[in-house]
Amino acid sequence: MAGRIIAAALLVGLCGAASGPSLAHHSFAVYFSPEREVTVAGTISAFRFTNPHGLVVVEVTEADGTVHSWRAETNAPVVLQRRGWTRTSLRAGQQVTLSGWQARDGSRYMRLREARDAQGRQVGAGAFGQNDG
Amino acid sequence: MHRGGRSARARSGRTMVRRLLALAGSGALLLASPAAAQDSPPDFSGFWGPVFNLGEPAADMVARLPENTVVIADTGVAEFPRGEYGGLILTPEALAHAEQWRPESELAIDRVCLPQSIVYALQGPFPFEIHQTPTLIVIRYEYFDQVRLVHMDGREHPAEAPDTKMGYSTGRWDGSDLVIETSHIAASTITNNGLDHSNRIRTTERYRIDPADGRLVATQWFSDSATITNNGARWIEWERRPGQYVYPYECDPSFALEYEGR
Fold first, then answer.
1. Rounded to an integer, what distance in angstroms lies between the CA atom of residue A41 and that of residue A97?
2. Is B146 domain-assigned?
3. CA-to-CA distance for A114 and A129, rounded, in angstroms?
4. Are B232 and B243 in contact (CB under 8 A)?
5. Contacts of B107 in chain A (CB under 8 A)
6. What ipTM does this complex have?
7. Which DSSP helix (H) or strand (E) runs through A2?
8. What CATH number is associated with residue B224?
9. What domains, with CATH codes, occur in chain A?
10. What is the pLDDT of residues B45-102, one digit of tens each?
């Protein structure tokens, strides 16, 4: 279809405009820094599997012995479910390593990219990106 | 990606869109509809998941958009940053509202589970199911568990009906295209960055199953003189995923507690 060639050119322009940080239910760009990647390891104290976002709370022991709580916000659980996550994928008391993007305000809060258990196995099927739903 | 670079490309894309739409409006881009009259309409029933690698917009569908329409590029997971509206021209009142918008207010416990209207929700990264009958099409969206009725029995839009986030929809077949008109949409957001629409917004969606790849493709057109002085549209695509189902969303507002005091 000849018209679709014109439409293709149109889309090139549109894609340039559309590329950028991911925002789904609320703004990734507003709350998280895409350049500030963090990884923490500790013991899970809570795991909430609820929309619009899930949450993992991990108690992390620092080098000086102090313990801080880190919170990792997940994608929507409806998205997690399609990547093999369930309500019991993580449990309180479990050792885990979380990686993701830290909150812009510098607090101990991140958007989860992936979780790995004590044996280094990834939870679910694949990590999450900044452009995931 | 730097915001300045993206804005430059956005301006370039918008200019191209406007030129194309101007051509379309002047009749210079007259394209034949691919859909000849059929004995029966196509079957849109099934589970449809969002597609993030958008294909080429069908030129004849773009050409059917009314004049003074800009196609905005926020379909899928991408959204405009604050202050960017994709070529939509805001009324002074809407612009002032957008400039005062605070994103953290959307994460208050009394707001975090309020669904957005179909104007914004349609383009988001969530699937839906279509259940089709000759007189009624039911669309069940995963996003916030919303359900939409599209009346296919030839009825008119009521003069008085409650405003809802899904609105009041009637549909008709135009060859193999499904055309849906929606009114009575409760005020909500257009771009989720401070640009909100009024309850006077009207939308027209045109859906088609692309014969080339089987994707469900659509133009979503909207007009709301209370907030924008031109009209807006989006190009959206989904793919059929047999055997899948919509999951319950069951939004839990307690998530907002994580954001209190931030």
1. 4
2. yes
3. 9
4. no
5. 26
6. 0.72
7. helix A2-18
8. 2.40.128.20
9. 22-117 (2.40.50.140)
10. 999 999 988 988 999 999 999 999 999 999 987 778 889 999 999 999 999 999 999 8
Residue B152 domain boundaries? 3-30+42-242
- Whether A133 and B50 lie within 8 Å, measured CB to CB: yes
Residues of B in contact with A55 (CB under 8 A): 255, 258
Say how many Å lie between the first and final Cα of chain B, rounded. 26
Angle made by CA atoms A54, A60, A61, in degrees to the nearest 5:
170
Q: How far is A106 from chain B (nearest CA, A)?
A: 11
Q: Hey, what are B88's tokens?
A: 């939509």
Which single residue is written with the structure tokens 């830290």? A102
The percent of residues above 90 in pLDDT, for chain A, comes to 67
Q: How many domains does chain B have?
A: 1
The most distant pair of C-alpha atoms in chain A lies apart, rounded to whole Å, by: 68
Ramachandran quadrant class, B252 (left: phi over 0; alpha: psi -120 to 50; beta: rest): beta
What are the structure tokens assigned to A108, written together?
A: 């101990």
Indicate the residue of A7, A12, A20 with minimum beta-carbon distance to B62.
A7
CA dihedral B79, B10, B55, B69 (to 10 degrees): 90
Q: How far apart are CA B183 and CA B196, in angstroms?
A: 16
pTM to 2 decimal places: 0.80
CA-nearest residue to B4 within chain A is A17
How confident is the model over B136-170, as pLDDT tens digits? 999 999 999 999 999 999 999 999 999 999 999 99
Which of B164, B161, B120, B126 lies closest to B145 in space, CA to CA? B126
Inter-chain CB proximity A51 and B250 less than 8 Å: yes
Minimal-distance CA residue of chain A relative to B82 = A30
The answer to whether residue B37 is domain-embedded is no
Inside any domain, residue B18: yes
Strand-pair partners of B237: B217
CA distance A31 to A42: 23
**Residues in A touching B251 (Cβ below 8 Å):** 50-52
Whether B99 maps to a domain, the answer reads yes
CA separation for the pair B164, B187 (Å, rounded): 8
Which residue out of A23, A32, A105 would a mutagenesis test of the B interface target, given it has the greatest number of B Cβ atoms within 10 Å? A23
